[in-house]
């Protein structure tokens, strides 16, 4: 899949309480929504902002959000459009904005995921048909009078009009003059309705009245894209959100032809899975089985190269890792599964032509109300959790404090690497992430193999000379201690000294997993229950490695390399400093050896 930015539009119906610190202010919820849904650009309708309110928002969210707005000339308590950029997802250093129609239309020029220009027009159109028609005409005239200005690649927001009866429930035609004016603007700018082009016959709506208001629905909120970039869009969606509003969020993902192809990323053991009873039982049973097999090996006089502690450990890690991945797909918070089930029902109701219009209106309104209630509860619970963590860790220097105080910026993506430089000086680039990883691996492998090999006898002679000049010698007692194998206390201390929150290696297993398993062992022992002693098993594996050497192919010392950019040409792999992330069981082993030394 290519690297992409998610662009969304949502009419929030005002910001709620004008005090941004008040619990009824919607900006906390808007930031939460953008963070959870990984929205890079949010077009906000009925933003109700002015300079004072924006300053308050910047003070709270300026580290993670860039907010530009246009205010209604008469009052900040009506209309208004804002374009909000998520600094964790998009580059914001070169952003420029132009106010096209005060309180109604705002143009933002920024950079796309590949560094190419991206222009976005956020709109909130008038509701009255005559004003709506004049609005589209005015935008068209604005661009006609400025031929050098970049036309929008994306136009989105609350259009307050539909172009086809299928987009209203009950179906009806909208004002012809307004529809024609919008159509003229779309033709002039070369824009198409991406959602409708993707779902040509689907009935779905973004605005809904309550049951008391009549239950009418319509697809007022839309995202239009240039015809030429439509093929680079995907995941067109409508979504009910936890923010108090009668509109749904519309979104899509936009990539470019030159964007790099990226994979799914590495898997990391989710922390919440250690509370899953099914996985807990599975690990316990597999652990007891592993422990029994390793104990049985002690009775063997000859070590079997195909059946030993290292092989058993490798298989155990694979088994519990596979089970964790399986459970991660199943174990979803109950509220999320309820929302997903209701969303499926809503789509079925909206598409059911067997129902009368009144039945569809009533059923869909009731379903939307249930979804909204659940989304609001989920948002509220998530905010409460975040508030508690901030109260506990926000003023204590540590990983969380560092994370919330460091400048926000998008993850550094390597867009291309030099594949080959031809004799005539022309350069061919590689953009596929898998192939770029191969280029990086080959480069560093060559660095290691290009060193001049010193003859063994010369190497031994130099080592002897260096050792002869070393004044400090290991005593007999120290020599005896160093020859001794690791003890379970060495492993326990090494694990205890391993910090939580560190990135795991290729197996995805964090230090916290081993620590929790050890804590469960201690609890089970105190209750005189059958117990899986993870430290005893790890000790057996480590001592097997010390005695017989590490078995190639077990992946015990395998790591993944992460290149960090230093300076100069970003397309040259030589300009990246590599760091290697090793599996946590390997790092516990080396830490235990270090402690012994």
From TrEMBL:
InterPro entries: Endo/exonu/phosph_ase_sf, Endo/exonuclease/phosphatase. This is Endonuclease/exonuclease/phosphatase. Keywords: Endonuclease, Hydrolase, Nuclease. It comes from Mycena belliarum. GO terms for molecular function: endonuclease activity. SUPFAM superfamilies: DNase I-like. The keyword Transcription does not apply. Residues 11-235 form the Endonuclease/exonuclease/phosphatase domain. PANTHER family: REVERSE TRANSCRIPTASES.
């Amino acid at each position: 899949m290519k690297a992409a930015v998610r662009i969304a539009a949502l009419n929030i119906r005002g910001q709620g309480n004008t005090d941004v610190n008040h619990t009824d202010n919607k900006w906390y919820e808007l930031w939460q929504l953008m963070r959870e849904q990984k929205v890079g650009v949010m077009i906000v309708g009925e933003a109700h902002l002015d300079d004072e309110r924006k300053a308050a928002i910047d003070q709270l969210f300026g580290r993670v959000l860039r907010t530009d707005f246009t205010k209604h000339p008469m009052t900040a308590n009506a209309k208004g459009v804002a374009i909000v950029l998520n600094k964790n997802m998009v580059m914001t250093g070169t952003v420029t904005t132009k106010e096209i129609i005060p309180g109604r239309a705002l143009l933002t020029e920024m950079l796309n995921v590949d560094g190419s220009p991206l222009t976005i027009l956020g709109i909130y159109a008038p509701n009255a048909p005559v004003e709506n028609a004049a609005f589209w005409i005015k935008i068209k005239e604005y661009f006609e009078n400025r031929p050098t200005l970049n036309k929008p690649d994306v136009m989105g927001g609350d259009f307050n009009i539909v172009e086809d009866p299928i987009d209203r429930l009950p179906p009806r035609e909208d004002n012809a003059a307004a529809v024609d004016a919008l159509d003229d603007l779309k033709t002039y700018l070369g824009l198409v309705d991406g959602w409708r082009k993707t779902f040509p016959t689907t009935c779905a709506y973004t605005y809904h009245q309550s049951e008391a208001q009549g239950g009418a629905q319509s697809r007022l909120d839309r995202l239009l894209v240039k015809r030429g970039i439509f093929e680079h869009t995907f995941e067109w969606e409508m979504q009910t959100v936890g923010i108090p509003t009668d509109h749904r969020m519309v979104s899509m993902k936009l990539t470019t032809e030159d964007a790099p192809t990226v994979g799914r990323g590495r898997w990391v053991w989710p922390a919440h899975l250690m509370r899953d009873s099914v996985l807990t039982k599975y690990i316990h049973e597999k652990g007891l089985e592993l422990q029994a097999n390793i104990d049985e090996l002690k009775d063997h006089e000859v070590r079997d190269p195909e059946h030993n502690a290292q092989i058993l450990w490798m298989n155990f890690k694979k088994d519990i890792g596979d089970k964790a991945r399986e459970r991660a797909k199943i174990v979803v918070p109950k509220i999320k599964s309820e929302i997903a089930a209701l969303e499926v029902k809503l789509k079925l109701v909206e598409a059911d032509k067997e129902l009368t219009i009144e039945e569809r209106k009533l059923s869909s309104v009731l379903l939307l109300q249930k979804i909204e209630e659940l989304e609001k509860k989920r948002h509220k619970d998530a905010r409460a959790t975040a508030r508690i963590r901030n109260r506990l860790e926000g003023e204590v220097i540590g990983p969380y404090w560092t994370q919330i105080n460091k400048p926000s910026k998008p993850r550094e993506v390597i867009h291309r690497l030099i594949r080959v430089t031809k004799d005539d000086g022309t350069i061919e680039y590689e953009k596929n992430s898998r192939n770029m990883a191969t280029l990086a691996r080959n480069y560093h492998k060559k660095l290691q193999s290009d060193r001049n090999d010193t003859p063994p006898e010369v190497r031994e002679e130099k080592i002897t000379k260096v050792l002869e000049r070393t004044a400090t010698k290991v005593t007999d007692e120290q020599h005896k201690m160093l020859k001794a194998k690791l003890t379970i206390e060495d492993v326990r201390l090494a694990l205890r000294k391993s910090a939580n929150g560190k990135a795991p290696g290729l197996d995805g297993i964090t230090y916290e997993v081993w620590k929790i398993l050890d804590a469960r062992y201690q609890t089970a022992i105190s209750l005189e229950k059958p117990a899986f002693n993870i430290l005893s098993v790890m000790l057996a594996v480590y001592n097997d490695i010390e005695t017989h050497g590490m078995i190639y192919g077990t992946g015990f010392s395998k790591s993944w390399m992460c290149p960090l950019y230093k300076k100069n040409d970003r397309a040259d792999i030589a300009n990246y400093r590599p760091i290697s992330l090793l599996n946590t069981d390997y790092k516990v082993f080396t830490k235990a050896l270090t402690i012994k030394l």
